[in-house]
Amino acid sequence: MDQQSKIIEALKNRFLAPLPGWEAQSILEPEIRKQMRIKASHHTVAKESAVLLLLFFQDKELSLVFIKRSEYAGVHSGQIAFPGGKFEDSDISFFDTAKRETHEEIGISSLQIEFIGRLTTLYVPPSNFNINPYVGFISHTPSFQIDPKEVAEVFSVPVNSFFSKDCIQQKTITLSDGSELLVPYYAIDSYTIWGATSMILNEFLEVFTSSKSIVL
Fold first, then answer.
1. Which of 58, 48, 145 minimizes the C-alpha distance to 102?
2. Given a cut of 60, is residue 30 above it in pLDDT?
């Protein structure tokens, strides 16, 4: 088994153990989100959605795919996200939702995606959605075909880049409605990865870190 196969196999095996869960996600939770979450504790049943953390090797480095959402009249306009969307009645499972949305948004066939594991479901107060995060892998460098109605840009980041010094920072951002929030975020090049995406990402990175010891 080559080194890349060992990394993927170790990651799969790590997902068989208990997840870091909310303890890891909450590290990147903005203060305003905490307040919204408390207010939403007696909310109606949340809608279901799913996202895909899509992995592939680029120049021998394990990389993770992100999208930048198109500008629209909504709470997540222009934000960095993982491919994903709302659960449809035609979807057999939340993983099928994640794969379908990935195909619709960035053109990756569901047949190419290998299941790696599932992360902890995260509730998003502003939109009243549960996000069900899945991790998938494709064995080749992907050729993206974006849907410009939903996606402005697709890019990938080597997973190890998230462990660099000062990658986690804090700043004030301006939302599409003009309001300002002080948020923790992952700073990658010119990208600001914050909110639910950074919270899910942080849990994945803890899983990834502990899986590396299996390879070693």
1. 145
2. yes
